[in-house]
Design brief:
Layout lengths: L6 E2 L6 E2 L15 H17 L10 H13 L14 H13 L8 H27 L21
Antiparallel strand pairs: 1-2
This protein binds zinc ion.
């Protein structure tokens, strides 16, 4: 009897054929919802490691972000300029289909949206961490629970 050829998904509880390269680590099947859960779980595990617990609100992190911003001034406020490469052309061709989705700023807008997503992740991670630990005062009295880490406000 060989029952080990199948794994049981921790999310939906169904049996699935694991990827042979990943048999030892895989705990979830390939359904989109389960993959998402798998990713969330590993993120949670990562955050729970002692060395990562202050990753998003520690002074070192704030400093790291500040340094990065100093090195990349106005990164997400870049205006349309003469330095636009081929990417911009691609966007402009897409505008015909996506006029609503990609406003006039094109690439700069994309970067802006992306940086916002990253910050949102920071905030979410920070909130989750506070819920788990309940001992970090950052973010409690901030607007909408955003946190008062100077690097991620504004
Ligand atoms: Zn599943």
């Amino acid at each position: 009897m060989k029952g080990s050829a199948k794994g049981k998904c921790l999310c939906c509880g169904e049996f699935y054929p694991p990827d042979h390269r990943n048999v030892r680590h895989q705990r979830y099947c390939s359904k989109p919802a389960c993959r998402k859960e798998s990713k969330a779980q590993s993120q949670r595990r990562w955050q729970q490691r002692p060395e990562n617990q202050n990753y998003f609100c520690s002074p070192e992190n704030c400093q790291r972000v500040k340094d990065w911003r100093k090195r990349n001034p106005g990164y997400w406020r870049k205006k349309k300029s003469s330095t636009q490469g081929p990417l911009q052309e691609v966007f402009q061709r897409q505008v015909a289909h996506n006029e609503e989705l990609i406003p006039k700023h094109g690439l700069a807008q994309q970067r802006y949206v992306k940086s916002h997503r990253i910050l949102a992740n920071c905030r979410r991670a920070e909130r989750d961490r506070q819920r788990d630990l309940g001992d970090c005062k950052a973010g409690r009295e901030g607007e909408g629970g955003v946190g008062n880490c100077p690097a991620i406000v504004g």
